[in-house]
Amino acid sequence: MQAKTKLYTVGTLVAATAFAVALAINEIPWSRSTASVPQVAVATQGTGLPDFVPLVQKNADAVVNISIERSARTEGTMPAPPDLQNFPDDSPLKDWMKRFFESPHGHPRIDIEPVHTLGSGFIISPDGYILTNAHVVDGAREVTVKFNDRRELKARVVGADDLSDVALIKVEAKGLPTVEIGDAKALKVGQWVVAIGSPFGFDHSASQGIVSALGRNLPDDTYVPFIQTDVPINPGNSGGPLIDLSGKVVGVN
Questions:
Q1: Catalytic residue check, 165
Q2: 187 and 6 in contact (C-beta within 8 Å)?
Q3: Which of 135, 198, 204, 205 is catalytic?
Q4: DSSP conformation letters of 44-71
Q5: Dist CA 229 CA 208 (whole Å)
Q6: What is the pLDDT of residues 56-87, one digit of tens each?
Q7: Count of alpha carbons within 13 Å of 65, Cβ hemisphere only?
Q8: Which residue of the set 31, 165, 203, 246 is catalytic?
């Protein structure tokens, strides 16, 4: 379960039930609105349901998988060494115990092990600026971005806002595909929306649902309102786009 932002969708999937909230993208300081355009997803003949294939095809190349390596710092205390006086001087076990307990009693032990986590993001400029969640890249010592064509590039964190949980990262590239930013303020309850991301590390997975409510506030989160949706959102979706039927991004998962 993960995430929140102003163009934002965050949620949990448990069995057959799902809940998600999305941060409206127009609340992000560097976002921009565009005029509405004809819907990309049109009704499938005979069903009355939208055909999401064109929408996903339009945006898939601009959605990325983000892999983060961070350090986990744990502290402890070495256990007290046994009384080595009880071992004979020529005992091999005594030599082994000396080596094992070479730190003095009570000396703090610090273990630093790399921790790897995953998230999603989407490209907002051809020269490599990518939007994601702040918590996805928080504490990262190395950020790797994997594209739909399987390329992998290292990224740097340009900036992050913890309160809205939005971050901007940058890769060195040119001519990248980008998403279009839509108008989250035009969303209506009951409207279809689609999420694309990397749940559980499965790249470029798409899921769909409707806008369940608008202007939601989470506990202790009075900074921004959220879009509530029933789109299935899982760990790894964080930072991916929430897309309306015109194929434009209206939220950040």
A1: yes
A2: no
A3: 135
A4: PTTT-SB--HHHHHHHGGGEEEEEEEEE
A5: 9
A6: 999 999 999 999 887 665 555 555 555 666 66
A7: 20
A8: 165
Residue with tokens 């939208």: 50
Annotated catalytic residue 71 = no
3-state secondary structure of 112: strand
CA distances from 104 to 58, 78, 107 (A): 62, 8, 6
Q: Which amino acid is at 87?
A: F
Question: Known catalytic residue: 135?
Answer: yes
Token duo for residue 139: 């504490």
41 vs 46: CA distance, rounded Å? 15
Helix (H) or strand (E) holding 134: helix 134-137
**Helices first, then strands: H and E counts in the chain:** 3, 13
Half-sphere exposure of 11 (CA within 13 A, CB side): 33
CA distances from 118 to 74, 104, 135, 142, 203 (A): 21, 39, 11, 12, 10
pLDDT digits (tens, 9 = 90+) for 148-199: 988 999 999 999 988 888 999 999 999 999 999 998 889 999 999 999 998 8
Contact 112/73 with Cβ under 8 angstroms?
yes
Candidates 203, 238, 244, 246; catalytic one: 238
